[in-house]
Amino acid sequence: MxxxxxxxxxxxxASVAGVIAIARMWPHPSGQHRAPHPLLRPxxxxxxxxxxxxxxxxxxxxIRLRLGGELCTECRNPDQAGGER
Length: 85
What we know:
Elements: H1 2-25, H2 42-45, E1 48-53, E2 58-64, E3 70-72, E4 78-79
Antiparallel strand pairs: 1-2, 2-3, 3-4
């Protein structure tokens, strides 16, 4: 009877060790594969127009923000006044 218990415990320990080894090798998400968050919401990126950028001192592509104001797509300079069109 003692031999059967010893063999059973050895089988159980081997099974647990195997499960732990498989669990450690199992791929888990690290978070590094995810893309960075975009700067603008997709809805804001739909309203694009060309306007004069005071920082670039030339006409550039601007985005009209949902909460008001505009943003230059090249230098990210916010323009609250509306700019020249």
